[in-house]
Amino acid sequence: MTGSGSRSGTGSAGAGTAGTGAAPSYRTMTAFTAADEERQRGVRRMKLTATGMLLFVALVYVLAQVAEHAGAGAWAGYVSAAAEAGMVGALADWFAVTALFRHPLGLPIPHTAIIPTKKDALGVSLGEFVGENFLSEDVVRQRLRAVGIGSRLGAWLAEPEHADRVTAELATALRGALTVLRDSDVRAVVGEAITRRADAREIAPGLGKMLEKVVGDGGHRRFVDLVVSRAHDWLLLHRDEVMGAVEGGSPGWTPRFVDRKVGERVYKELLRFITEMRDMPSHPARGALDRFLTDFASDLQSDTETRARIERLKGEVLARDEVQDLIASTWTAVRSMIVSAAEDERSELRLRVRAALLSLGARMAREPKVQDKVDSWVEGAAVHVVTTYRREITSLITDTVASWDPEHTTRKIEAHIGRDLQFIRINGTVVGSLAGLLIYTVSQALGA
């Protein structure tokens, strides 16, 4: 019986696809492994055991019938009834178990060979079952809330070795992401973003406000002190050059000694002016410079012509190749700095990330508000995924099952659950025999 049923399984699978016009393209569920072969051998042993019990009760039935007709006594009737019911139970359960995987005796009986012929429908039902009972919003929220992800994750992160592990994994991921990115593409994007943002925003008012605050706070005076001091030192070192420039600009008809005297006079007055400006914080020139800067700050904010000139100057500066190269090279510098910090276990970046993880873990472990917030985030993200992609998730199940080869799938499933199913046949034999004995006993008692 077993052999004929096995041979018919292939035919039923083929019959299930016949008439479609073209044979469907199936893929193997998974390779039939050595463990599967061992399971299949166990199924065969249990089949032999169940079939042996059927043959045993059949033999008992024959012997009991012979004994009853030979006048062996009333006991023969009881044994015959029990054996007869045991045969019926064994045959019924054999039919039921076999019908799951193939047509019994190769006969195309309706509602048999359920797995190979109803595989796709079973896949759809399985997908719907998963979608309704595992991917619903209420179920996801209830299960995640019961887990208490916020408190568990907090307690886990609060351990230094776990924070070190997460920090190392983040550093590895960061290095990997920076390695995958093409520098040329990123530089182009960064350059375009900076240029577009600079073009889209007028800078004159902002510069005016900043300059107004700097002048109001006196922050420019140190810069003026530096410039004046450097100018004084430069004049001392370049006396002849200054005098030569004055003499070179004098008319050609003036005597040379006159030009010399004029140059010396100009140099001395210029040096005196710079020296006084350096040494006198209240020098009139400093006050004039303050007023100039104040007026310029106001013009930057309110004068249309000044603001337009600044915008034109900004455009000219941004358009220069040197500036674009500088902007593009910013990514290279930033990337190198980040990679170096990620690789160094004692870098400020990794130390700060580790400290932040430990602090976050401690707060999550002890503060219910933080736990609730984390739980809400996780629940919201999970609910969004299952509600948005539930159809895609369940279709993964149905499409995968539909792509399996029916015959191979049947063998695979039978190898995994067939041994337990054979116990149904054994139990059917035993329970049938007991039921038959009970029914016969009650009948005899009522008949008496």
UniProtKB/TrEMBL annotation:
The keyword Membrane applies. GO terms for cellular component: plasma membrane. It comes from the Bacteria. Residues 1-19 have a biased composition (Gly residues). The keyword Membrane applies. Keywords: Membrane, Transmembrane, Transmembrane helix. Residues 1-22 are annotated as: Disordered. The chain crosses the membrane at residues 48-67. This is DUF445 domain-containing protein. The lineage of its organism: Bacteria, Bacillati, Actinomycetota, Actinomycetes, Kitasatosporales.
